[in-house]
Each structure stands twice: as C-alpha cells, then as structure tokens.
Amino acid sequence: MEHFRLINLDKTKWEQWHPQFKGTFAKTIYIDKNTGANLRQAFLPSGFSLKERKRHHHGDTREGVYTLFGNVKYQEFENPKITKGKENNFQKDFLLDRPPYSIHGPKIGDITDLGCLILEWGSGPLHFNYIPFDGNLDDYENDYNTPLVVNSKKVDWIDHPTIEGIKIKFLSEGGKNKLEGFHPICKIFIPPGWNKINSDGNLLGEDFRKWFYVLHGDLPIKVIDEKGNQILNQRLVENEYFEWFSPTKLLICDNEESNIGCELLCVGHDFS
Questions:
Q1: Whether 170 and 133 share a structural domain
Q2: Which end of the chain, N or C, is less surrounded by CB atoms within 10 Å?
Q3: Would residue 272 count as lying in a domain?
Q4: How confident is the model at residue 202 (pLDDT cuts 50, 70, 90)?
C-alpha cells in the first residue's frame, strides 16, 4: 500500500520531453496507470524556437501549468475558425488552468526569451489533437473553451478560511467544471514560528490525488499510517513534491517550526 510520495526534483534526472519540442527536457513526477493523469517538471532552453506553426487541444483532459522561472509565449484560439490567436506571454508565477477542448499552440520563432521552467499536469493523457489553419474547418465543430490565466503576483494574500495564522491565495476554483483532485489550485504561505498548536494541522488523505510543491522555504512534516505509526519525519525544502493517500494522516509543523517560512503550490486541496 502506498501511503505517500515524496520526490526531490533536484535529484531527479532530466529526459527528452515531447517529440514536437526537440531540445526540451522533462522530469516525470507521476503518470497514473488507470486514468492517464500526469505531472511533470519541464524545461525549455533560452531561445528555443519552432519553425512550423501548429495548434492543438487535449480533448477531454484538463491541463494545468505553473511557471517557475522564465517565460513562454503561446497563442490561444477561441474556436477553429479563428486563425489569428491571442498571444500570451506566461511569466514566472503565472498559472494556466486549461479546460478540455481549449485550442492553443506556440508561435513560430522564439517562444522563450529567458528559458522556461514549468510544472505541467493533466487530469488525463495530454494527447495532441491537431487542428489545421485552413481547409474545411466546419469539420471541427465542438464546444471549445478558453483557459484561465492568473498572474499569482497580483493576487492578494488573505487569511486562510479555516487555519489560523497562515495565508492563502486562491488561484482557481474550477468554476462549473471543477474537478475533484484538480481544484482548488492555490498558494499557501506558512510563516516562520507557526506550528499546529495554533491550529489543527492534521490532514487526512483522500482517494483522489492531491499534492503540493515547495516553491520557497522549508516545511517540517510527519506522516502517520492507518495503524497510528509514524512513517516519515522530514523537513521539506524548495523543489520538493509531496502527495499523500487515504487513510494516511499528514501533520504539518507538529511541534516544529519552519525556519524561514514556506510558500507552497497546492493542487486538489487547500489544507482545510
């Protein structure tokens, strides 16, 4: 039985990313064998460019992207008949929450000036379903969607609704298409000096995936199994990934404190 998954991405090897993006690299965090849900960290080098213009969507899969460093330029298309897309320059701390049947594609030429490091995840397989720019585009009729783009730097920190002493930024609630295990998407800040004495820090795992990634700082955690045994006592650091599963219990800052505070990207939960 798997109780949790902890990955230090500094110690994970880079591999070739998608064949369309030769010269780019990725670190696979997970691929769910049952659903095809997936998560990776990906890197595009400075000056990476494409010579062929293509656009696609991912079918029924919902995609999330968070930019950790640099920038990447993409075009968004409301439907197949629009051939001049809206250009977006996704920069550090931008979140992209892309619903199913959202048409997009990189522009021709350099698509990143600085290079780009991202987290990318999907609710299912991220297949590339290509849509041409000409021909009979009526053949591609469907209910298409547009993504939510959030610059998290412009979202205010607020008090967490249920946990005293920590701050939260809600980035995406998913709206009418909210997915269990995918929403909410938020950032959480745990200040130095905070510990569970101030609040209930016991969090139970769920059957669906919920995870967090350490953006900055350090976070002491403990993991308790279904028999009440402590099976992990560790201080998480920047660029580490963690998820936990039912009936595992996660304890945060259990009679320990973060040394410098901690900022987390949380997907599928908000620690409530």
A1: no
A2: N
A3: no
A4: low
